[in-house]
Amino acid sequence: MTPASARLGLLGCLSLTVAVTLGLGSNQHVGFTFLLPAGGTECFYQAAARDDSMEVEYQVIAGSGLDVSFALMSPSGYRVSSDSRRSDGIHMVDPTEDGDYRLCFDNSFSKLSEKMVFFEVLINSQSSASRGRDEWADAATPESLVGYQLEDIWARMESVHQHLERSRQTQAVLRAFEARDRYLLEDNLWRVSFWSCLNLLVMLAVAAAQIYTLRRLFSGTKRVCT
Q: Which of 138, 199, 189 minimizes the C-alpha distance to 4?
């Protein structure tokens, strides 16, 4: 087993390699890291409500070539978007259909190398946002607003929430980039060390052969002179 395979195996211990269902619930942001086997395909499902917006972003962290194929299927069976052998990608769906979207990652073109893939799904639910706004409006009274309009307060809070979600998403992507760069550095370090040691051994062997040849040459010349 090569060091690269060993590192992928250790990373795989912290991930899942089977298809799972990611529930929507109250969590609108889902991040996941998994090990995509060589020659295999993995599919994941994300529930969405009608007229929401969904953003899917993926990043290949480790593996030979750092590329996978990606396809996003709608609940009705239509291919919304797809990529062929790319290391990363971002796809938007706006508005969404009511049902489960299928996210498929394909590594069938690589028969020897497994891939470590990170992806995240961000859903902006318009229905839950409007429902929360209505509930807050019902609970508040005009006297408690102290001169501020309720819609302005809600708009500011929603803007802050969206910025926080975007910041968390950006940090997750940066962590994925950092993991991929660290893998590349470790893999390149192993290659450089291997070839450096091999070149050093070849140089030592050539030097020893030259010294041995020169000693045999002068030893034979001395016997002829006497």
A: 189
Q: Which residues of 128-138 are buried (b: 16+ CB within 10 A; e: fewer)?
A: ebeeebeeeee
Tens digits of residue pLDDT in 74-133:
999 899 999 999 888 889 998 888 999 999 999 999 888 889 898 989 888 765 555 555
**How many residues are present in the chain?**
226
Does a structural domain hold residue 75?
A: yes
CATH number at residue 83: 2.60.120.680
The verdict on residue 218 lying in a domain is no
Residue 204 in any domain: the answer is no
Helix (H, G, I), strand (E, B) or coil at 17: coil
Q: Are 14 and 33 in contact (CB under 8 A)?
A: yes
Q: pLDDT class for 6, splitting at 50, 70, 90?
A: very low
| Gap between the Cα atoms of 122 and 163, Å rounded | 13
pTM of structure: 0.56
Which uninterrupted H or E stretch holds 196? helix 150-225
